[in-house]
Structure formats: structure tokens, C-alpha cells
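so my prof wants the structure for this chain in the C-alpha cells format not the other one, which i didnt know existed until like an hour ago. anyway here's the sequence
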Amino acid sequence: MKRCGKAGFGANRIFAVSGGADSVYLLHRSESSRGGTIVAHVNHGARGRDSDEDMSFVEKMGEDLGVPVLVKRVPKRKGYSPRGPAFEERARNIRYAFLRELQSERGAGKILLAHTADDQVETVLMRVLEGAGITGLKGIPRRTDDGIERPLLDTWREDIVAYLRRRKIPYRVDRSNFDTRFERNWIRHELIPILEKRYGKSVKKRIFDLGERFREIDEFLEASARRWMRRNVRTEGVAGRAMLPRKPFAKLPGAVRKKVLQRICFERLGITPNGRLLESMDRLVVSGGPSSRLNLGKGATLRCRYDLALFGMDDETTPAPTGGKKKTVTLMEGPGLYEVGGVTPARAAPETGSSIFISWEERKNSPAALKRFGKGERSAAFDGDALSTPLSIRPLIQGDRVRPFGQDGERKVKEILIDRKVPRDERWGRPVVCDAGGRILWIPGVVRSNHALVTSRTKRTISLRLA
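here's what i got, hopefully its the right format
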């Protein structure tokens, strides 16, 4: 990093100055209140001698104005062409990284960029041609939360050039800005003149105003989405997955739905979805099946349950057992608290974490007190003398059958799980309690079997419950 002038700490403004008309105008117009100002310039070396002359020009201007100039020279990369979208993106990333580095080192409150109304019009047109949504069509933001401001977004380039010429203020002209192989240059020098010839000079102002209207709409949608999210979006389990109710979500206007999905991606998953991905996400949440799934990129997934949509990372996936040996991991030989770990993925019982604790108690209860155990969700009660012990716990696998409470015949567990609206990827691998003969007595959280029912003649009751 090359320094020119005294660059002290405590600067409250950093001006990004390339040497072109826009950034020179921005710096000169701020001359009356220049205290605490730093000029930042990046020399990408893309245009050889011209790039070096731009750097020298900015340094000389800073010296004349008494403003410290900090320069970053970008080393050349072998085999890397200083042309095309890849170079533009890399150059932009380098510039912003340099500005934020200075902001942090110098304690600056603001970074001032010289984007103009013309830049805004060009950006809106680019976004239209790319098929951007409302957020994209609002164009360049006037300010951001990290201290970036663009005070010239209402100023037209022709007014800037006229100002500099009247006052004989020199500026640099970047010849690459006339290369129409670059998309922005083509829009500036080819498309906009065609539009002006067909619709008049005021067409740029109308496009600019369109961007402002989209900005207002986006701010309204943002507020509406955040209000709905505060009431409806929650986290689930130890993994902190975001979840939202599908039916209330489907009743929202489409634009608000997409804004909700966009905020979840930004804030919970750390990804930036494009319009096509937002459409796919919205379609899945609104009308997808109970086991639908969509990969969102960077390991993030969207999964649908019957009533919920879950957003999380893909490290929660566990292969479902489909056959083979039914490994018993814990023996239930008497009263106590038993930890069942390594049997079920955390998603099978998110409220209990990665391990499930089952409590076995021997007790006497009245028929009224025992009646609530029959459903077999959080707890189940059995006639201790009718049980074949020891009890065991093993993973649930496809093909298992059970005789549900209150029924005489067996049913496929798969059918019961479907009836209870358990999503496909959460069915297999959850723990089941079996008797000594291997018959399923209880699927915690789902159903209790019809074996060893507690009656008025029961003398010893065994109660199993999720602890």
C-alpha cells in the first residue's frame, strides 16, 4: 500500500477516487468540509501506463487539495486477462475489500462512492435484462448498514462534466469505458441512445424513477416480511433449523412470500438466492408433498413436512435402515432411566436432542390415570406380569409391523407413520421398544401396541415414558 500525504487516524470519511469525472467531482464538491478525509485509489494495472497515470493524477490532486491519498497496487496474475466479467468482478471485490480495510484501520465512519443517476439507470436496465426481481430492480442502494454512501445518485453525469469544465477542473478519461464488449458500456453507448431516439431524452429520468418506485415497494415488502417472520418463523431443536407453517405462508401475497424466503436464506443459511431459486422454493413450500426436498446450495436444504417447511444444513441427513440385523443397543432389564444414543437421527425427535431417555417405572395407578398412556406418544403403560422381559430397544426399519392399541390385527408401521404425517426422511431409524420375543411394544412419539394392556386386574404396572 502506497501512502501520499499525512494519513492520520480518526478519519470519518473515505472517498473512493479513480480519477474519473464522477469521483473528482465528488471530492471537489466536498472541499468545504474536508476535515478527516482520506482518498483511496486502487491501481489494477489493467491498462498499463494509463493505469499508472491515473494513480499519479489522483496522488497529485490529493497533494493539491491537502488530502491524504492511500493507494493499493494490485499485483499482476500470470495468464489472467484484464477483460471480461471475471476481471470486473475480481476488481470490484478488491476495491471493496481495500475500502473496508481502510475503514477498519482508520476508524472511518463513512465510505463515499461516486455512483451517479446514470449509473443507476444503467443498473436498472441491466437488472431488467437479467430478469431480476423487485429487490434487483431497485438498483444501487443509496447507503448500506456498513457505512457505504452514494451521495451522487441523484446527479446526472452531464451536469458533473459541465461543472468540471466551467471550473477547469481536470479529470481522467478511462478509454476502456467505451469498449462495448462490456455489458454496462453497451447499455450506456448503444442501448440508451436508441431508447432516447425512440422515446426522447426524458426516458432516462423515467427509468430512474422506476427504480425509485421499486425501492419503495421493496422497503414495504421488507417490513411486511419481517413482521410476519417475527410471528411465524421459529427455530427447531439443537441444530437451530428455521421452520415456518406452510398454510399461513401460502396465504401471503407472492411478493411477500419470496421476501420471507430471501430473508431466511440471507440470515439463517448464509446464501444469496437468485430469482429462479426463490421461485422453486416458493413452489415447494406452497404445493410440495410432505417429503419434498430442495437443495439450496452450500449444503443448505429446504424440506417439507405436512404442515411445516424446514430450512437447515444437509449434515442432518442419516441413511435409513432398510434391512439386515436389527441391532439391539440397550437392554431394559428393570426400573431406571435409560439413554438411547446412536439409534436415531436428531431429527426423529428434535425436542429431545441427539439422545432419547426412556424412563421405566413400576407403579400402581387408577384406570383413569392410566388411560392417557394408551395413545403411546410421550408415554405408555403395560401390565408388568403380561410382559415378556427383558425389554430391548432397536432402530425402526422398513418392513416392521405392529398391532396398534385398540386393534386386533397387525399393520405395517409405514402406514401408521403416513397416517400420523411423519415425513419420509424422519420415519426410519427412530427407536422402538420390543419385548423378549422381538414384538414391537411401543414406538415413542407415535403409537403403543395392543400387547400387555393394563386392566382392573393388573397388579404391577410398567410405565415407559420419554424423559
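also thought this was worth mentioning. Residues 203-232 form the longest helix (30 residues).
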